[in-house]
Amino acid sequence: MIAWLRTPVGMWSTIVLGALLCLPAILPELMPENQARFWLANIFGRAIIYGIIAMSLTFLATYGGFVSLAQMSLAGVAGYVVAVTVNGAVPSIVGGLSYLTAIPLGVFAAVAAALFVGLVSVRTRDIYLLMITLALAMGFFRFVETNIAWFNGYEGIRNVLGPTVFGLPFRDPHVLYYVSLATAISLYAGVLYLVRSPFGLVLQGIRDNPRRIAALGYNVAHHRIAAFGVAGFIAGCGGVLATIYNIGISPGSVGLSATVNVLIMSVIGGLGHPIGAFIGSLIFAFFDTFAASIYDRNRFNTLIGVVFLIIVLVSPDGVIGFAKRARAFAKEKAAPKDWSRQGSKPG
Amino acid sequence: MSLQLFLTIILNGLTLAALYFIVASGFSLIFGLMRTVNMAHGSLYMVGAYIGYALWEPLYDQDAWYAWYIGVLAGMAAAAAVGVVMQKTLLGWMQGQELRQALVTIGLSIIVADQILAGFGGNPRQFFAPDAIFGSSYVPGVGRYPTFRLFQIGVAVAVGIGLWLLLNRTKVGLMIRAGVDDRAMLSACGVNVPVVNIVVFALGAALAGLGGVIGATAQPLAQGVDGRFLLISLVVVIVGGMGSITGTAIGAILVGLAEQVGQALFPTYSVILTFVIMVVVLALRPQGIMGRAP
User: Fold this and answer.
1) CA spacing 20 to 30 A to A216: which of A6, A272, B226, B231?
2) How do residues A289-326 score in pLDDT, each as one tens digit?
3) Do B102 and A148 touch (CB under 8 A)?
């Protein structure tokens, strides 16, 4: 543990974690009280919540090699199940459940839906998978938009306030922030653990060469579907938090732009490591909030579209990849070239 | 259900399928040759429709009989021009990086949709068809039926036959088909492959623009149609098979009929029927009904 803390990764992880934990105490020192509350909930809290959803996409892309656009819909499945079943939602469609039962039910539904998405797309790869998951996502959107009986159609379901935590309402910025942060950290650690487990190693093997893994006796299809299930669990947790953060859910939360926004976050951050999802969603939240002062309040989409385009064109592996290359470049500049070693390199 | 109602629903499904075929055939054509999944195909539809509208409106106010035809030509030209610029400046040099191309076109579609919203506002618009194809005609078994919707089927059939002739009976078609199989060898034979790519992209985009103007005559044009027609194109080619014109036609007919029959039988669940078809096809034939096995 101590040795790990001395490595650059361990050191930086500790610093970032410490900063995130102290953030609610630091922010009021930097700005007025009401602004600090806004930053805590609507920029950092939101970035963490949508970062969780984006991480489910990054997890599949990094370790499985499939870019799934269904992740926002899976989050939406969890959100809708909570909104439909929980007490106090308006309009009350099924109701009767407390958050204690509704939230696990929502996450369970997201996992089930994710397994279904995995099953449907199990025989496809790459760009076909992207198309099929996008089609499924849009199908889910059209379905909730047109169905009044279960999902209240276009208007969606409001007043999903979330449970009380230690006597405090969930919507309190501190509660929202810390619950989201705790969820994000556990899921993040879970992903890092999982990819080192035998399951994770097989998954990465499938990404690199599915035929060889099949020849080794592993069932490629089952592992792929299971990976979707894991991603569905992550997306479901994010979806429940997002629904409480938005005090409800409507078809707009799972529409094309919401679906694409999750992809944008993942790509801006970088599809090379799960942390990219959170970096991307933080950048996204900044742009979303401050688009008015940067370009034009109503033209946020053009702004984020241009940023996204530049990232894809200049650095396809996102901010992480950019940082990595910048570091390698700086190292090369700083260290004088060791000419003596070059000659002895085995050709 | 009376026979007349049943036939009307079938005819509605076929006319809708005609529109879907026009739009999706462009998508399929681009995908078939270049393996580029053009996520901005819906945006090209919207560009065609809005630019066509901008030229159509003043002419229509002057009662010019040719207003609508100018709108069609302008819509096709505008979409083709945007498509050529996309292929030439962005997509051409990342040939083969399919995922990156898809991401680039997603970025473009966000920007295009937002700029159209800035330029044209959010009010829905609709073309009026020219007098020659306005009003209704008598269809045996159905009764009076909007002439424009029948015209839609005619355009789709013309597009289908035209594409078939182009691909199978002309030199350009020969190059395109050769490019699908082996672009390196085609290039070695002295064909300028990037130019062929641009021609195909322009053609595919023009079909999206044509679909845009026709679609905006049959039903109102508003924000969000780009997503809708991108989805339709995706589902149609997934069901029918990528890069096959016949497959696109079959896919369009299945999706169009499913949508209309679904809306008649179980209105709020009709979307599911479309996706049941998609899931069943994927389970049985992952490459689509007419697609070639990868």
Assistant:
1) A272
2) 887 777 766 788 888 889 889 988 888 888 888 888 88
3) no
ipTM: 0.87
Decide if B88 is inside a domain: yes
pLDDT of residue A272: 87
Q: In this structure, is residue A92 part of a structural domain?
A: yes
What is the value of pTM for the model shown?
A: 0.88
Domain span including residue B155:
3-222
- Within 13 Å and on the Cβ side, how many CA atoms surround B128? 13
A163 in a structural domain: yes
Share of chain B above pLDDT 70, in %: 99
Question: Is residue B19's pLDDT more than 80?
Answer: yes
Q: Is the pLDDT of residue A191 over 90?
A: yes
Nearest residue, CB atoms, A132 vs list B98, B114, B238: B238
The more confident residue out of B227 and B209 is: B209
Which residues on B lie below 8 Å from A316 (Cβ)? Answer: 100, 103
Domain count, chain A: 1
Tell me the chain B residues in contact with residue A120 when contact means C-beta distances shorter than 8 Å: 279, 282-283
Is B229 inside a domain boundary? no
Mean pLDDT of B249-265: 93
Residue B95 maps to a domain: yes
In total, how many domains does chain B have? 1
Chain A / chain B CB contacts < 8 angstroms: 107
Per residue, what are the HEC states of B99-142? Answer: HHHHHHHHHHHHHHHHHHHHHHCCCCECCCCCHHHCCEEEECCC
- Residues in chain A within 8 Å Cβ distance of B98: 126-127
Q: Is residue A209 part of a domain?
A: yes
Query: Is A273 within a domain?
Result: no
In this structure, is residue B294 part of a structural domain? Answer: no
Mean pLDDT on A214-239: 95
Expressed as residue numbers, the domain containing A232 is 35-254
Measured in angstroms, the CA of B121 and the nearest CA of chain A are apart by 12
- Flag if B108 and A147 touch (Cβ within 8 Å): no
CB contacts of A299 in chain B (<8 Å) are: 114, 118
CB of A154 less than 8 A from some CB of B = no
Tokens standing for residue B44: 């090209």
Instruction: Give me the torsion for CA of B238, B11, B228, B28, rounded to 10°.
Output: 40
The pLDDT of residue B271 is 79
Joined together, the tokens standing for residue A156 give 């969606």
Interface test with B, best of A128, A133, A140, A224 (most B CBs within 10 A): A128
Of B99, B230, B270, the CB nearest to A127: B99
Over 90: is that where the pLDDT of B1 sits? no
User: How does the average pLDDT of chain B come out, rounded?
Assistant: 90
3-state helix/strand/coil string of B210-273: HHHHHHHHHCCECCCHHHHHHHHHHHHHHHHCCCCHHHHHHHHHHHHHHHHHHHHHCHHHHHHH
With beta carbons under 8 A apart, name residues in chain A contacting B275: 135-136, 139
Q: Which residue of A has its CA nearest to B282?
A: A120
Q: Residue B31 in 3-state DSSP?
A: helix
